[in-house]
Amino acid sequence: MSNQPEICVVADTAAVWDEGARRFATAAQEAVAARGRFMVALSGGSTPEGLYRELATRHLASAPGKTSDALSVPWSQTHVFFGDERYVPHDDPQSNFRMAREALLDHVPIPARQVYPMPTDAADPADAAAEYEKILLQVFNTPLSCSEAPGEGQKPVLSTEYSVLSTPSPFPRFDLILLGMGPDGHTASLFPGTEAVHEQRHLVVAPWVEKFQTYRLTLTPPVLCHGRQVLFLLSGASKADTLRDVLEGPYEPSHLPSQIVRPVDGRLTWLIDRAAAARLEK
Ligand code: 6PG
Question: What is the CA(39)–ligand 1 centre distance, in A?
Answer without folding.
Answer: 20
